[in-house]
Write a structure and sequence with these properties.
Layout (H helix, E strand, L loop, with lengths): L8 E5 L2 E5 L7 H9 L4 E4 L10 H15 L5 E7 L6 H9 L4 E4 L19 H10 L3 E3 L13 H16 L5 E3 L5 H9 L4 E5 L1 H5 L2 H4 L17 H12 L5 E3 L8 H5 L13 H11 L5 H19 L7 E5 L3 E2 L4 E3 L2 E3 L7 E2 L2 E2 L3
Helix pairs in contact: 3-4, 11-12
Bound molecules: (4S)-2,6-dioxohexahydropyrimidine-4-carboxylic acid and zinc ion.
Length: about 350
């Protein structure tokens, strides 16, 4: 493994986060600021309570995000939450109003997914409208069958649902969000160029052994759950490769400490605060500290996703520097706290003052 020397620095186009949860209410302003400070654009997921199912709701939410971002150069990219009752007319309206994508949660698959789709076949007319209007489908790719172990839910989704969806809608752009398995990586790699995947910090850095090290660590609990070391390596290999199909989507999903540490911990890991620095560390540890890795890091963080979504590349740059930084133990939110990934630990990279 070749590691970068101390004080190495390099500049890349400003990154985009193609999967983030900003929430609403007390949490909104802190988490939006953390993202807006470092990223140029971010796809805001719609699983609020109630979910963002209509274009007007998404536009209101966008305005709120922009207001608290306090940063004119940050652009939130909005999504609608697909339900059994979404109409083709809503899809037309969404496209007309600059909505970026539609999110598909199988009902019951994860946090706030109760209003999700009960059977994908019920929304085939919507997938048709999305194909016509070129609106990508962002997929939480896990089956919900309680008889299927958590570890296998992504794998089963690929063969039992995703394959048929691709066959029935070969022209529809679809993203396997937060790919977590070697099966997922292989499936996306072998599919057409309409199919891509986002990679989170946590699935690139941690495994189920980390999750269960001293009993379940709720701060590493997410959906899809962390997988084996060979799965992690497959995702690292995909992200650091030159494939245009894999790009950054943190799935940063904040929950108040009370909800994480209580009974039935909420699924979700908060990583937006230092995601870019962690991705740099992951690429460095992948053992290819050379021009090619750096180019792939920039592509992964800043250009592949934009190209997939047909967005212009960002013009601004950020400078990464090999300089350790300590991650805060917590952030205050109301009378509770938000515990970030790697709370109280050190990471090896920093972003030079923006
Ligand atoms: O861990 C997760 N948390 N996975 C998801 O799919 C949703 C997210 C959330 O909203 O908390
Ligand atoms: Zn998510």
């Amino acid at each position: 493994m070749t590691l970068a020397p101390e004080n190495s620095r390099f500049s890349i186009k400003k990154p985009d986060d193609f999967h983030v949860h900003f929430r609403d209410g007390e949490m909104l302003s802190l988490v939006v600021k953390h993202t807006a400070d470092k990223f140029a654009r971010a796809i805001a997921m719609p699983n609020l309570i109630p979910p963002v199912t209509l274009t007007e709701q998404a536009l209101d939410y966008k305005e709120k995000i922009i207001k608290v971002a306090g940063n004119n150069s940050f652009t939130p990219l909005m999504t609608l939450y697909l339900t059994d009752r979404t109409t083709p007319e809503e899809i037309r309206k969404a496209k007309e109003n600059g909505i970026t994508a539609i999110k598909y949660y199988p009902a019951g698959a994860t946090t706030n997914s109760d209003s999700g789709v009960t059977d994908i076949k019920k929304v085939y007319s919507i997938l048709e409208a999305m194909t016509i209007h070129n609106l990508p489908l962002l997929i939480h790719g896990e089956v919900t069958d309680p008889d299927i172990a958590e570890q296998d839910r992504e794998k089963y989704f690929l063969e039992n649902h995703f394959r048929e969806m691709i066959k029935d809608f070969p022209e529809l752009k679809m993203v396997l969000e937060h790919v977590s398995t070697k099966d997922g990586v292989d499936f996306v790699t072998q599919s057409s160029d309409k199919i891509a995947a986002t990679c989170t910090v946590h699935h690139l850095m941690f495994t189920k052994e980390d999750l269960y090290r001293n009993g379940l660590n709720p701060h590493l609990f997410c959906k899809p759950v962390l997988k084996s070391e060979s799965d992690r390596q497959a995702v690292v290999q995909a992200a650091t490769s030159s494939s245009s199909k894999f790009f950054a989507g943190t799935d940063s999903a904040p929950h108040p400490r009370r909800k994480k540490e209580g009974d039935n911990p909420s699924a979700g890991i908060y990583s937006a605060y230092m995601a870019i620095e962690c991705y740099a560390q992951i690429f460095e540890e992948a053992g290819m500290w050379n021009g090619e890795t750096l180019e792939n890091l920039e592509n992964f963080l800043s250009t592949r996703g934009a190209r997939f979504y047909g967005l212009p590349e960002n013009q601004e740059v950020i400078t990464l520097i090999k300089q350790p930084q300590a991650i805060p133990a917590s952030f205050p939110i109301g009378n509770d706290q938000l515990i970030p990934l790697k709370a109280g630990k050190e990471i090896q990279w920093s972003i030079d003052a923006i």
